[in-house]
Amino acid sequence: MKTSTVLLITLAVIGVIAPLTGLYPQFLMKCVALALFAVAFNFFTGNIGLLSIGHAAFFGMGAYAAGFATKAWSFTPELALVLSLLVGVALGIVMGGMAIRRQGIYFAMITLALAQMVYFVCVQAPFTGAEDGLQRIPRRSLFGLIDLSNDLVMYTFVLVLLIAAVWGFQRIMESPFGQVLLAIRDNEPRAISLGYDVQKYKLSAFTMSAAIAGLAGGVKALTLGFAGLPDAHWTQSGNVILMCLLGGLGTPLGPVIGAILVVALESRLSGLGVVQIGPFALDLSSKVPIIIGFIFMVCVLLFRRGIVGEISAAFASAKARQSPAADAEKKSMAS
Question: What does the radius of gyration of the chain's CA atoms come to, in whole angstroms?
Fold first, then answer.
């Protein structure tokens, strides 16, 4: 069975079980929206090896596009999400066209600078609502038939989008196109010597990643009913990097696990409030970024491949240890 099929079944099973455990639909929808964002980021950075710090621009503009189109133009959800995806494509072509020829830290800094330009446009543009953002964004009805105001229905819809994105990206990576991306990541000069147009492949992957990041922004705006400046700020790029590194950069399910962990930590820690430790009172709700940063530091030092990456490596190591023993047993039986 192909990896993409296994992922499809695994995510579907987890997604169906999650609401039955008593978790709030709003929490689950936030996890799914950010997981979609992390999956989009992972497709480019995890498979090309270039660190983008500008993905918040796609996420934020996707959120604004879907939110404004739904609220001001009465777009249906499917049209609003298509618009957010197209906004991601347009921004991806522009930003990727300017940054993709650079490597390493230069690529990261260019994407950061371009994303900050988009952020300052969002601060000034009238359609974003500036500091107040777009609030009370309606969900409306999917294709005019399915009312998305019900949280469980909305959750099912966004879960299907996430599963489709994970399955689609994995199918791409199993195709010749995906194998070329991996070849570029592992040895770009060799890929060039084989005749591949490396810049074209990189730009295509960057644009696909930007498109799904824009879609994730649209999903977030519709599920939570809000689109604001934090969505387009560079710290949102930092969050998605954290999610992928915690879960496992370059692994299909790592970004999903990382997104769930980060959202759960933020929710859990901010709800603890003030904790009394002897004579000291510690307000954990205001220390969430510090605590998550500490956890991130520990994970980077001890689990450099992320949770899913470490588990995959452990399975691969166990399989490698068993193979010589199995070969020796076969040889003894043959003799």
Answer: 21
Q: Is 229 helix (H, G, I), strand (E, B) or coil?
A: helix
DSSP letters of 98-139? Answer: HHTT--HHHHHHHHHHHHHHHHHHHHH-GGGTGGG-EES---
- Dump pLDDT digits (tens) for 277-312: 666 776 766 777 787 778 778 877 877 788 888 888
H/E run at residue 275 = strand 274-277
CA angle 89, 90, 93 (to 5 degrees): 85
Give this prediction's pTM: 0.89
Say if residue 26 is exposed, middle or buried (CB neighbours under 10 Å; 0-12, 13-18, 19+): middle
User: Quick one: which of 238, 242, 253, 236 has its CA closest to 297?
Assistant: 242
Q: What is the predicted pLDDT for the residue at 328?
A: 66
CA distances from 18 to 21, 22, 43 (A): 6, 8, 25
d(CA 44, CA 207): 9
pLDDT (tens digit per residue) in 208-259: 999 999 999 999 999 999 999 999 998 888 889 988 888 888 888 888 988 9
